[in-house]
Each structure stands twice: as C-alpha cells, then as structure tokens.
Amino acid sequence: MPQIMQILLTFACALAVGYLLDRLHMPGGMMVGAVLGSCLLGVLTQQALMPSPAKTAAQIIAGAFIGSGIKREELREMRAIVRPALILLPCLLVVNILAGLGVAATGDMDLMTAMMCCTPGGISDIPMIAADMGADPSIVVVMQFVRLVLGIGVFPLMIRFVTGAGQEETETAQKKEENKTFQAKHVVITLGVATVCGLIGKASPVPAGTMGFATLGSIVFACLYPKAQMPRTLRKLAQVLSGAYVGASVGLAQLVRLRTLGVPVLILVGAYTAACFAIGALLHRAGCFGRAEAMLAATPAGASDMALISADLGIRNAKLIVLQVLRLITVVLVFPSILSVVVGLFG
C-alpha cells in the first residue's frame, strides 16, 4: 500500500474512534480514541503509519491554542508559577527514583532501563535519551506508552470523578466557544505565527522547543494582536494527529512485551496514581491551584496532551500549562543526569 494511503487510513481510523469517545464525553476522548484506533490498525494490518510532521503539527496547533488564549491579564499571574514548580518537580523526581528502584527489583531489566521507564517525560523524547544512556529503548517505549495512556485516558476520568470537574463546566465552556465568532483570517494569521515560531523551536537545541516556541510566540502575538484566535475544531485536530502518531508507533511486538511486564506496569501505575493524589493535595493546600487543576498538574502526561485535555474538563489555566511545559523541559534536561548518579549509587 502506498505511504499516502497508509497515512490517510491511519488518520481515518484515529478520527473514527476518537470521535466516538469524544461523543461519549470521555475527557481526552478524541486523543485516547486516536491512540486506540491507530494502534488497532497497526496490530491487525501492520499498515498504520503517521510521520513525525504530524506530531510537529499537533504541537504547533496546541501551542497556538494555548498562546492565543493568554492575554496581558494572564501574563501578570505568571510569577505565581515558581511556587508550584518548587513543589511539583522535586516530588516527581522522588517518585521517578522510587518507582524505578521498585521496577528494577521486580522486572527483568537493568536499573537504568527501569529508571527511564518511570521518567515522566514525553514518549518520543525519553526512549531516545534512554538509548543514549545505555538503557533498553524497546522496554522504555512500552512502559512510556502505558504511562501516556494512564495520563491521557485514566487520570482525566479519575479527576472528573473525584473532583466533580468536567461535564457541566465543559458544556458551558463549549457553548461559550461555539457562540464565539471566529474569522478565518485571524485564525490563519495566528496559526502562521505559531508555525514559524514552532519550526524555529524545532530547529533549536531546546527540549520541547516546537511547542515551547509556538506557545511563547502565540502569547506575544496575542498580546500585540487582540484578535488572535484558534477554534475548538483545530484543537480536536491536534488531538487526532498526536494520538495517531503515538498509536502508530506501538505495534504487536510492544503489546506482546506487556505480558512480561505485569508487575513493573502495576508499580508504575500505582506510583503515579498515588503521586497524582499526594502532589495534587500539596499543590491545593499550598494555594497554587484548585483541586482539579492541582491533580492535572501532577498528571504525568505530555505538556501538549494536558493542554488539549484540560480544556475538555473546562479548565483553561495558563499557569497549569506553563508548569507542564516547564516539567517536560526539566525532565529532559535535568532528570537524566540525576538518575545517572542514582544508578551509580544503587546499580
């Protein structure tokens, strides 16, 4: 089958399942469904294909969506990001180390591989870093996929159930957005600025540069050009592209490998579930966020994923998204060096 047909078929399967779950009002349903649809296609036919530009496009659209919604009033609140970051990042590092030690003790893998399996970074970034550090990237991909599905599929549902955030707020937010008039030229200009900035970020050595630069560029543009806007439809498109890219990268071999990783997967899931509640409670009690936002901040999914999914819960908090981007950058830049030291001590 020609590659273009494979890409279109993958996108169609991702869109179909994503649309179904979205209509069922599942938080992040479009993205979760896209992952499931493209993954199922790959397992059954080995024809799933979604090139890396799809991920880049999703990151740029997510950055434009976030940035266009941040005006000068929201920027004044950015100083408040320091306190939650000082709570969140050290706590995630502790969870990473403890979970890694637990996985290494119960799974058939070395300590460095176990540590990288439990690192709360991006599914595309961490396996590459793991390979550079001498870990087994095939195991890391499988475990990171589990963490990603947990972050975008299970945790939003859990947060909605525990906090009550979601349906009423989501429907209100959606009705408000549907009533908003979008002009094509403003959307095109906003997306164009985000694209240029995102591509500059992609070419830079900055981790998570594509989304980071697209977001920052869109924020600056929105402050200078108040008509900057991005419709909800494009956010859904970004969810489908991102989910299809992830799902297409997981084949039968990775799913079969899950059978041998039962206990490590349980440790990973248990550790980050406990962390979501515990760190969320700390952030809430410190007055950094509301309860639902605090739990979302502690959710170990990608920054672009949380930006897209938090809107499904009726939450559009600029501090939350900036904190997630900061988490991703810190995890990619700082965590590997610290984990190397830990492996040297315990390995």
Q: Could you characterize what this model shows?
A:
The protein is an all-alpha fold and 347 residues long. The protein has one domain (3-346): Up-down Bundle (Na+/H+ antiporter like fold), CATH 1.20.1530. The chain has 18 helices and no strands. α5 crosses α6. The longest helix has 27 residues, at 137-163. Residues 168-173 have low confidence and may be disordered.
Describe the protein's topology.
Layout: H1 3-23, H2 29-45, H3 52-68, H4 72-75, H5 82-106, H6 111-117, H7 126-132, H8 137-163, H9 167-179, H10 184-203, H11 209-224, H12 232-248, H13 252-257, H14 262-285, H15 291-297, H16 303-312, H17 318-333, H18 335-346
Helix pairs in contact: 1-2, 1-12, 2-12, 3-10, 3-11, 3-12, 3-16, 5-6, 5-14, 5-17, 6-7, 6-8, 6-18, 7-8, 8-14, 8-15, 10-11, 14-15, 15-17, 16-17
Count of structural domains: 1
CATH level 1 class label:
Mainly Alpha
User: How many individual helices?
Assistant: 18
Low-confidence sequence ranges = 168-173
**Major sheet, described briefly?**
none
The CATH architecture designation is Up-down Bundle
Mean pLDDT, all residues: 82
Radius of gyration: 19 Å
Helix content: over 70%
Task: Give the amount of beta strand, in percent.
Answer: under 5%
The name of the CATH topology is: Na+/H+ antiporter like fold
Provide the succession of SSEs.
HHHHHHHHHHHHHHHHHH
Distance between the termini: 47 Å
Question: What's the shape?
Answer: globular
